[in-house]
From TrEMBL:
It is found in: Cytoplasm; Nucleus. This is Acireductone dioxygenase. It is an enzyme of class 1 (oxidoreductase). The keyword Nucleotide-binding does not apply. One of its GO terms (cellular component) is cytoplasm. Catalyzes 2 different reactions between oxygen and the acireductone 1,2-dihydroxy-3-keto-5-methylthiopentene (DHK-MTPene) depending upon the metal bound in the active site. Fe-containing acireductone dioxygenase (Fe-ARD) produces formate and 2-keto-4-methylthiobutyrate (KMTB), the alpha-ketoacid precursor of methionine in the methionine recycle pathway. Ni-containing acireductone dioxygenase (Ni-ARD) produces methylthiopropionate, carbon monoxide and formate, and does not lie on the methionine recycle pathway. It catalyses: 1,2-dihydroxy-5-(methylsulfanyl)pent-1-en-3-one + O2 = 4-methylsulfanyl-2-oxobutanoate + formate + 2 H(+); 1,2-dihydroxy-5-(methylsulfanyl)pent-1-en-3-one + O2 = 3-(methylsulfanyl)propanoate + CO + formate + 2 H(+). Ni(2+) binds at residues 85, 87, 91, 131. Pathway: Amino-acid biosynthesis; L-methionine biosynthesis via salvage pathway; L-methionine from S-methyl-5-thio-alpha-D-ribose 1-phosphate: step 5/6. Belongs to the acireductone dioxygenase (ARD) family. It comes from Eremothecium sinecaudum. SUPFAM superfamilies: RmlC-like cupins.
Amino acid sequence: MVQAYLHDNDTSQDFRKLHNSGKAVTIEHLEKIGVIYRYCKTEKEVDDLARERNYSNRDVVLIKPDVFPTSASYLDKLKMFYAEHLHEDEEIRYVLEGSGYFDVRDPITNEWIRILLVEHDLIVIPAGLYHRFVVTEANFIKALRLFKDEPKWQALYKPEADNNPILKDYLSSINV
Ligand code: KMT
Ligand code: NI
């Protein structure tokens, strides 16, 4: 079962650690803010969901130290994924191997919710929801990234993205 909890915001610890504040977050709460979690035993289940939601493009992202020339460049890549951002399209991520954390910023309370994803976990992050990503201390994830027809999946960083109409559309979609 997926684990979600409030992030402890302890910046003295490495960002790949658990950062579990002890306050659990339910799947129902995630759904309220438009985040969908699914366990997909096979890639066929992912394909079905992708078809239903009109996704037609995908790639595989591999994040682990040995695919980077130096440990500094690995860390730079991790920091890039960890910068708070949103997208103008919803994004689907499916873990093929390894594990990682998706942190989503609760638009109601402004708190970071940490979601641990392991093999077979799929997450849908709605357009306009601020998030960031980091691997766990195992330092390894292989994940499918699914994109709609016309990919608009470049990251839009905070605070510039605060004025993006997609953010306002997202907030009104969840009644905030
Ligand atoms: C994103 O949009 O934040 C990402 O794609 C993170 C890497 S996917 C494991
Ligand atoms: Ni993203």
